[in-house]
Structures are given as C-alpha cells and as structure tokens.
Amino acid sequence: MKGGRNLVAAAFALTALSYGLARFAYGLLLPQIRQDLSLGAAAAGWIGGGAFAAYCVGIIFAFLAGARLGERLLAMLAGLAATAGLGLVALAPSAPQLGAAMALAGLSTGFTSPPLASAVARAFDEQARPRANGMINAGTAAGIIFSGLAAMGCAAAWRELYLLFALIGAAITAWLWFALPAGVPERKTHGAPAWRLARPGLAGLCAAAFLMGASSTAIWTFGADLLRSEPGFPEARIAAAWATLGLGGLAGSSTGILVACFGMGLVHRMALLAMVLCQGMFVAAAVVPLLAFPAMAVFGAAYIVSSGVLLIRGTLLLPDRPDLGLGLPFLAVAIGQTVGAPIFGAVLEGASARTALLLFAAIACGAMLWGVEGTASPRQQRKRRGLSAFWKEQG
User: Fold this and answer.
1) What is the dihedral of CA 374, 375, 376, 381, to 10 degrees?
2) Cα end-to-end span (Å), the chain
3) Which of 88, 108, 352, 388 is at 20 to 30 A from 192, Cα to Cα?
4) What's the pTM?
5) pLDDT one-digit tens code per residue, 78-114
6) Tell me: the pLDDT tens digits for 216-256?
7) In angstroms, what CA-CA distances link 287 with 32, 208, 224, 225, 228?
8) φ and ψ at 185, to 5 degrees?
9) What CA–CA distance (Å, rounded) separates 92 from 96?
10) pLDDT digits over 48-65, tens only?
11) Between the CA of residue 7 and those of 21, 81, 108, 109, 333, what are the distances in Å?
12) Residue 135: count of CB within 10 angstroms of its CB
C-alpha cells in the first residue's frame, strides 16, 4: 500500500509537470513572451498549436511503443521531454526556437497518461483504480494553480519561471525511477488491434472531443493575453485569474459522481454549455472586468468535467483496449487544439477578440450536437424501473 501511495504521488507530480506546466503555462505567460520576442497573435497561435500537435505525436508513440518500453521508461521519457522543453523555452532567443522548445515540452504530455494508467492497473485492484486515477488527474489543476502562484511572485520574469519549472521537472523525473514499477507489464488479453476500432458511438465521441478541444484553445492559449488586452489586467492579476482556473479544475474532479447521478450525455452537454458561458463572460469582461475571475473558474471546471466524460465514455466503448479508450478521445481533443489555436490567433489578429470568442463559443455549441451517451446512470435506471412498475400496475 505504501508503494501504491508513492506511485500515485509521483504520477500526480508528473501530471502537474507535463500538463499544468509544460503544456498550459504557455497561455499564462504568453503576454510577456509576446512582448519580449515581438510575437504577433497569429505566430503565438501557431506555436501553441505546435505544442498540441506534438502531444498527438507523443500519444501515438506511447500506443505503439509502450508495451515494449514499460511504464517506468516511458514515464521517465515524459519527464525528460518536459524538463528539456521547459529549459529550452527559458533560453529561446526567437520565435522558431521557442516553437521547437514548446513542441518538445508538449511531446511530454502524450507520453504521460498511457504509462500512468497502466501502472495504476498493475498496482491497484479494480475497485481502487478509479480513486487512484482521479487523484492523478487532479495533477493538471495543481500544476495550473502552482504556475499561477509562481507568476504572482515573479510578475514579468517568464524566463526565470520556465527555468524554475525545468528544475522541478528534473527532480520529478528522478522520483519516477523509484516510484514506478520496473519491467514490461504482461497483457492478459491482446484485445482488438488498434486498426479495428469500428465501435458504435466512437466516431461521435471523437467528433465531440475534437470540437471541444478546438473551442478550449480560446482560453488555454489566449486567455491571459485576452485578460491583458481587454480588461487591462496587470501581470499579478492575470496570474491570480490563472490560479482561479486551476481551482475550478479541482472542482471538476467530481466528474465520476456527476456521471453516476445524471448520466454522461447530460453532464457533457452542461460542461460544454459552461464553456460557452465562460467565453460569453470574457466578452462582457471588457466592460465588467471582475467577470474574468468567475469566467476562469467556470472554464477550469467545465474543461476537466468534459474531458473526464470523454475518458469515461471511451473506456466503456473500448473495454478490451482501455489504453486506446483513454487515448483516442484525448488525441481528438489535442487535434482540435492543434487546429483551433492558429485559427483563433488569426481571427483575433484580423478581426477582434469579441468575434474570435463568439466564433469559438459557437464551436462548443457544435460539440453538443454529437451525443456522448452511455448507459443510464443509477438514478435514471431507478426512475425507469419505477415508471415501468407503475404502468404495469395501471395495466
């Protein structure tokens, strides 16, 4: 049990590093980066999209090579990629070098989730796995909160912050060697091969994930930049708003409970509606700046809930390949983010923040059209049984 706690703690830390720092801190520090490197909004969007594209490459590599490398080695590759990428960002003298460094940092996120899911499956029984995975997934929100608090202490020193993140990454990578199991896991069943994935509902799931990912880049990549340009927030207030986003993400850790009570379809639609609300509040924040804080909290909760529903539905659709059930919807989210970031940057630069936000709110509405329906929740099943019994009595 002690080893299990160490595994969860190290996996939580790696998730905070790769997602919260290597992947999403770019959006927080983008205003300072743009100023120092003279980046336009379109160039910033392409760099952000490149990091998301690298995630796609990383997760495909994890699918193909994970069974041969084992959890420990693949997780350490994630830590090394994050550490090296963060360190190179701190040293980047211009946009091309920054883009390459961000891509390397983004690669780490693709390496992260599959080995951690596999390690949890080896260390915990079926009943304990959801709780362990839930704790690990909360690492994203923790990393976001940490980056926001660190930025509050070092308002404009983005290079120093990235160097600090790299040093933390080196320590976490060393920890993984001792915390994750050695060797290659034995597969009891090989399951369906990766190229035979024709399951009812999978295409709709990936379409919803793609559109959700595209819409989310409005905040993940340009949220801090919008806070600076529209309500005119100073650096310290932007950092506080980013930490608020992370706190909202912690609230989103209740996804499993919500799905059990209300079902996947309703919970996912409400999460997408909350993302639309967030982007509408960003438009209004130009007039009422204080709306930016609840907007960031709403987005954090909505994104974590939405991605959690996608994960749950994916593993139910692919019970014989849970690694793909987790990875395919997340891959679709990342592809959406890869496409969405440069488009948002181009619209922001060519039109206005209001136009870009309303367009990307419409994309989130489009994601609602793709049903993410699963089995009925226990509460819904009880209602149906009660109605069935009632009509039998009436007949």
Assistant:
1) 180
2) 55
3) 108
4) 0.82
5) 999 999 999 999 999 999 999 999 999 999 999 998 8
6) 999 998 988 899 888 888 888 998 999 999 999 887 777 77
7) 24, 32, 17, 16, 13
8) -65, 145
9) 8
10) 888 888 988 998 898 888
11) 20, 20, 18, 18, 27
12) 17
186: left (phi over 0), alpha (psi -120 to 50) or beta: beta
Q: Evaluate whether 307 touches 313 at the Cβ level (below 8 Å).
A: no
Q: Are 210 and 366 in contact (CB under 8 A)?
A: no
156 is written with which tokens? Answer: 């404009």
Structure tokens at 241: 């708003």
Tell me the pLDDT of the chain averaged across its residues. Answer: 85
- Residue 352 zone, left/alpha/beta (φ > 0; ψ -120 to 50; rest): beta
Find, among 275, 274, 269, the residue nearest to 369 by Cα.
Answer: 269
Rounded to whole angstroms, the Cα distance separating 67 from 248 reads: 35
The CA-atom distances, in angstroms, between 381 and each of 200, 260, 311, 392 are: 22, 11, 22, 16
What does the alpha-carbon distance between residue 139 and residue 125 come to, in Å, rounded to a whole number?
21
Most confident region among 66-75, 182-191, 251-260, 313-322 by mean pLDDT = 66-75
CA 265 from centre of chain: 20
Six-digit token string for 319? 């019970």
How many residues belong to the chain?
395
DSSP label at 189?
-
User: Which residue carries 């990936």 as its tokens?
Assistant: 206
pLDDT at 190 over 90: no
pLDDT at 152 over 70: yes
Residue 386's pLDDT is 47
Residue ranges of alpha helices (H) inside the chain are 2-15, 25-37, 41-69, 71-91, 95-123, 129-137, 139-153, 158-179, 202-220, 223-229, 235-251, 255-262, 264-285, 292-317, 322-350, 353-367, 378-394
Single out the residue of 236, 223, 257 nearest to residue 344, CA to CA: 223
Q: Which of 183-187, 198-202, 338-342 has the highest mean pLDDT?
A: 338-342
Handedness of CA 118, 124, 125, 130 (dihedral sign): negative
**The two three-digit tokens of residue 9, written as one number:** 């703690």
